[in-house]
Amino acid sequence: MIRPSDEELYSLFERSPVGMYIATIAGDVRYANPALGGLLGYSPRELLKLNLRTDVPADANGVIDGATVRWRHRDGRLLTLKVYGKITGEPDARMIEASVLDVTASDQQRENLESTAATLDVVVAQVRAVWWLADHELRVVREGGRLENLGIVNDHVKRTLPEIEQLTGYSMKLAIDAHRRAFAGEIVRYTSGFGERILENTIAPFHDGGEIKYVIGTSVDVTMARAYEQRMIDAQRAESIGVLAGGLAHDFNNLLVAILGNADLGLRDVKPGAPGRSSLENVRQAGLRAAELVNQLLAYAGHGSVSKERVAPAPIVEELLRISAPQMPSNISVRVDLPVHLALRGDSSAFGQVVMNLITNARDALGDTGGTIWIGGMLDAFDGKVHEGDVLTPSAGSYVVIEVSDDGPGMSLETRRKAFDPFFTTKTTGHGLGLAAVLGIVRAHGGGLRLHSMPGGGTTIQIAWPATSTPFAQTSVSPPARVILVIDDEDMVRDVLGRMLEDLGYGALTASDGPSGLAIADAEKLDAVLVDLTMPRMSGAEVVAALRKTQPTLPIILCTGFDRSGHGPVAADAYLPKPFRMEALEQILEKLVPLPK
Question: What is the pTM of this model?
Fold first, then answer.
């Protein structure tokens, strides 16, 4: 091996495009080639007058292996440099012999990526979204966002889109095409599915120094937004159909009056056994059947009559099952779990029609294969917000929820959307008005309706009826002489107050907040109101003020654990401090709303 001379080495260093220098440990430059001078903006002679004063670490053998240093250019710019070399010489005269590479551009690019990533993380933290950066090989180099909310548990960094497709099983055809178009300078937007979610995707070029080095992608979960949009469309369609159904029912009723009236008159004139008598009877029977269908149309349109009596669901369901037992196939079992103390406010015959339609629908869904129908009920509080599966969202308040479920074949998304439309049916027989009537009756009662179903997963329909009170013990079928409205946001408080009032011989209505309580006060004939002082949405003081405007003589009892003196700022007729004994409640009621002797 031929060893180069000092002159040859010097010539090599001088012509090298890589910056090179020799300096003391203290930073005094002893030698610097032109490339280093050009890098820092100095001539080699000027560099000899400088002191680098940099702490460049070395390993145990005195080797400097890619140490990162920050030196300032002559014009003031900070440069990021990599230093490679070694420390030589005796301990009292040690020198650094090193080569220098400029990595400022790469460092700036990294900082840009870090800044972009930090910004994206802040943005996507506010929404259900994910983001990523991909290189020219379609390899993910960074990702972030609320991955877990989209059900993304795999780490995709360092994987290409085709590898991710193979890993997850989801098609990446649209994504791959969008990434390639983005590298060509295009911003691509498209919608895709991810399991049961709907994602809005944007793939855009990521420029650095005028060059597209990456593409940046974002996916935003718009499933709920699309669901809300669809609900709005469905609600508008249902309203339009309701108007049409109501108009048709009104006109048909007028025609049926004439048909049934003339049939009855004809039957009075034609004696039994006379020619034409059977034809008139058939006309009358068909007219009565048509009247039933018209009533169902009116129920869907919300034009049916609605009473507000106290209804106990358990005995009605028991009677309906007894009546429908002969039509229930032997391979279908029915299980009932309805607390006997539940009570709702509404029309008992309308409630029976709703439950009968739901049982019939579940029976037909099970068909020849058989299965199980569950009927359950409970008292529940609703917040007035739209929830998944809502067909009709009830306002905030307390409701008796009746649930009818089956383990049949379930419904597709398209069937679920149309299930409550008039005349829509998946059966070979039937007019498709059963569930439509259910929706109309529940709407007319101010209730709610929720549907959960999927292919192969059975069907559950929940109806929410306004509750007359919290659970109570039925002691009498006669209407109560005095009715007290309890407004309290605590379920347990409403429960115990309702049972106390009924045990004392009063009727009890309950509401979980101020707005729903005021609505009941407007709709019901009340003898007194017992209201909590501290509640969300609307305080007890605000409720009292509103009641004083509409019903100034209505006795009001303020129930509170804060003002125990009974001389607070609220203009109530009596104070019931928490906790209290039943005797205290009885004494106040005897004074304000005594029961008839």
Answer: 0.40
